[in-house]
Amino acid sequence: MVFCAGRIRGARNGIQRIFFPHPSAAFVVSRYYNCLPSCHPPPVEGLAITSSYRGAQLSPQARGAPFGLDEKEAARRIRGVISRIINGTVDDVVEWLRRDRDCSEIQLSDSLVDSLFGGFGDDWKSAMGFFRWAALCSGYKHSSGTYNKMVDLLGKMKQLNKMMDLVSEMREAGLVTLETVAKVMRRLAGARRWEDAIKMFDNLGTVGLVKSTDSMNILLDTLCKEKCVDAARGVFLELKAHIPPNAHTFNILVHGWCKANRIDEAEWAILEMKGYGFRPSVITYSTILKAHCKNFSFDRVYKLLDDMHAECCPPNVVTYTIVMHSLAKSEEYEAALKIVDRMRAAGCKPDTLFYNSMIYVLGRAGRLSEASHLFEVDMHLNGVAPNLSTYNTMISIFCYRLRDKDAMKVLEKMENTFCKPDLLTYCPLLKLCFKRGKTDDMLCVLMNDIVNKHHLSLDLATYTLLIHGLCRAGKFEWALLLFEEMVNQEIPLRNRTCNLLLCEAEEKNMYGTVERIKDLIKQARNTSCSDQRIDVLHC
Predict the structure, then answer these.
(1) Is 3 within the bounds of a domain?
(2) Of 421, 413, 483, residue with least CA distance to 449
(3) pLDDT in tens, 180-230
(4) Which of 168, 220, 336, 511 is most deeply buried (CB count within 10 A of its CB)?
(5) Tell me, what DSSP letter sits at residue 47?
(6) Cβ(457)–Cβ(157) under 8 Å?
(7) Is the pTM of this model over 0.90?
(8) Which of 15, 33, 52 lies at the terminal end of a domain, its last residue?
């Protein structure tokens, strides 16, 4: 990957080697920073693990027999090989992994493959290359779950033809499940191809599945989540005579109407639900309650909480979490904390998600010591284990209050647990770097951790954050390199990012660069357009 070359005194070229293994990228940064050749070591021990590794950094102990490796070390080796590939194709990734001696001897397992998929982010080419290589490994066969992960990523990145090709492959192997159908429908609808999503349902028989209440609910849920609740209602009216609805069917429609902020229709759906003999559940009422929260109609929220008790359907911890979090977002922190007392009085025990929300509330209210006490003491005393979101929330509130040292301590503590950082962990830290102007030292250390330590692939949101932050920090060349990397990885571009880079180049009278940016935008759009036509019938 192409990342940064900070002006850390005495280690400029070391940083270049770390983040710019590609010669042309290193040249651009060297010219930008006016760096002279030097032999200074990298500023952080063990930092140089991109362009120069090809196995050289592995300790004698780490280079033991691959069959005896634990999954963590095996995953690290595979990620290390993939991270050395600059702007490669799917076939390049397959070939690099196939030729690597250590990787060829690693015994893959479902858990190892799943753990690796978690680090690809939006980098579908690396994921697809790894997926294809894994299929060639002896003793391993992709499960339906692994296929589903790959299908979902291809759909997310608008690689719809490739997604449908993979579904055809799954059909031939008898691996298509309702989960597969759900992911395909959701991605088709997300690409505004609602008719194709409906056609997928109509053609369930071609993939060995039948039309049922469960499959109908998947279609309705897909349409509702993509804000096509009217279409979902039409489908329901057409199918209800042939496929019996259940309580979940109506909960989906209630959610769809609420998502469209049409609460009156949601309440009508509840009446229809009762007409079919189904009682509204805490999920049903919590959905309505959440819609009122989004409208900041807290009088209605409190009334609905009372009504739930009257209906013998008391709120649960999820309901209270929704209310507390919504009050905090409207900056009514004291009212949010009173929800805690109300919940305790009702005998409802907090769970991890509730603690996460409460930590967020206290952090936004500036009560960091109380938030820290919850995190470090209270959760443990109540037998509630922190999860990834708990650590991310703690890091986020410390960054929000500009306490970078405390945030880094939480990150260090997190790295010593079973919870490993993801991109959401690093986003508030990256934002804080730009806010504090630490784009030479702290930013480079964080980027090294993301890429080389945890082997995370950047996604659209992280690329956007970095490019915009670097432009504001006056590091246009670096931002441009990241933009080019996005295009080469076929990650969809945002118009705001394209316009920002064009304006920056024009203001600097870099007319050649303006044309280069336009060419990259054209390249990205051509790639996107090439995958617009799909044929669901072939699946």
Answers:
(1) yes
(2) 421
(3) 999 999 999 989 898 899 999 999 998 889 999 999 999 999 999 999 999
(4) 220
(5) -
(6) no
(7) no
(8) 52
Residue 218 included in any domain: no
Among all chains, which residue has been given the structure tokens 């630490």?
A: 438
282-315 core/surface letters (b: 16 or more CB in 10 A; e: else): bbbbbbbbbbbbeeeebebbbebbeebeeeebeb
Q: What is the pLDDT of residues 230-247, one digit of tens each?
A: 999 999 999 999 999 999
Q: Is residue 478 part of a domain?
A: yes
Q: Supply the range of the domain harboring residue 469.
A: 457-539
CA angle 62, 141, 103 (to 5 degrees): 25
What b-and-e string marks burial along 138-150, b requiring 16 or more CB atoms within 10 Å of the CB?
eebebeeebbbbb
Q: Put residue 74 in one of left, alpha, beta given phi > 0 → left and psi -120 to 50 → alpha.
A: alpha
Task: Flag whether 469 is in a domain.
Answer: yes
Instruction: Tell me how far CA of residue 305 lies from CA of 22, 251, 253, 328, in angstroms.
Output: 59, 18, 21, 18
How many domains would you assign to the chain? 2
Residue type, 273: M
End-to-end Cα separation, the chain, in angstroms: 35
Of 281, 301, 299, nearest in space to 289 by CA? 301
CA distance 62 to 214: 48
